[in-house]
Amino acid sequence: MTHDESSARVRRGLSYVCEHLDALREHLTELGRTEELDRLLRAVVDGTEDAATHLETVDRIVRADGDARGAYGAGARTVREPSPLGVGTAAEADVAFLCPLNACARVEWAEPTMRTPPRCRMGDVPLRWVKG
Prior knowledge:
This protein is of the alpha+beta class. The protein has helices at residues 3-19, 21-31, 34-46, 51-64, and strands at 95-98, 107-109, 119-120, 125-126, 128-131. The protein has a three-stranded antiparallel β-sheet, with no helix packed on it. It has a two-stranded antiparallel sheet with strand order 3-4. A hairpin with an 8-residue loop joins strand 1 (95-98) and strand 2 (107-109). The longest helix has 17 residues, at 3-19. The N and C termini lie far apart (32 Å). The relative contact order is 0.18.
């Protein structure tokens, strides 16, 4: 795997963690292993440590307990970038919301019914918006 492929895999994995943070925390709480998730979140938010190392640790823990998706999710193992379900393509949207920490590959296309921007669950801040 090239550096670019590895980086893209980590960004997609962090997207999965952000979108499934509550479920991952619940799973790790049951295992008594939330400190590993907390280290990952600190690495992403503070940017002082390599998040990839902590993501791999969380992935190994949940996989060892039988979660086949791990911390990367099924979509993170494919070549194609994941696209939000039930939302139009980039050409159909005027605004997209992106990771405010520039840590993950999460993209949510704006919908007319949105009253507030989606939030980054890792940093507890709104996703940043870009106008197309």
